[in-house]
Amino acid sequence: MKHNEYEYLLNKIYYNGILKKQGVNADIYQRMQNEYSNLDMKNLVEGKLDSEYAFRKSFLVVRNYVQQAIKDGMKSFQFTMRATDITKLTYMVDMLNRNFFDKQSLDQIIITANSVFNQYNLKN
User: Distance (Å, rounded) from C-alpha 7 to C-alpha 49?
Assistant: First the structure.
């Protein structure tokens, strides 16, 4: 997935100025993507965990921002959303609470959250 899906989700939920002030942008996702690309199975097998630690650290940052964005989006727009969409988003938040480090699953959650929020003309 491209980093713009991540940034699009955050921009859909938050005011753009708030994100820039906090340094939340696509660079955070891009850092995680780079760390993911640097994972080397040979190093993991040999016990060199530096690249895995770097990936997990950046993954947690992205995962936490995505989870908080979904929660804030649900709180801000819950009265305009259908119950099925709220249920779907709640399930995604629950999935993000689990201790996982699967980038493909996180990417799928971001894409699904975007598709749910895109159904509504959300204007902050």
Answer: 29
Q: What is the CA radius of gyration of the chain?
A: 15
The DSSP annotation for 69-113 comes to HHHHHHHHHTTTS-HHHHHHHHHHHHHHHS----HHHHHHHHHHH
Query: At 25, is the secondary structure helix, strand, or coil?
Result: coil
**Two tokens at 70?**
């979904």
Residue 75 lies in a domain: yes
In a domain, 122, yes or no: no
pTM of the model: 0.84
Q: What are the tens digits of pLDDT across the range 14-56?
A: 766 555 555 567 888 999 998 888 876 655 556 667 778 889 9
Domain that holds residue 89: 3-117
Phi first, then psi, for residue 36 (nearest 5°) are -65, -40
The domain tally of the chain equals 1
How many CA atoms are closer than 13 Å to the CA of 106, on its beta-carbon side?
Answer: 27
Determine, yes or no, domain membership for 59.
Answer: yes
Query: 3-13 vs 50-77: helix axis angle to the nearest 10?
Result: 30
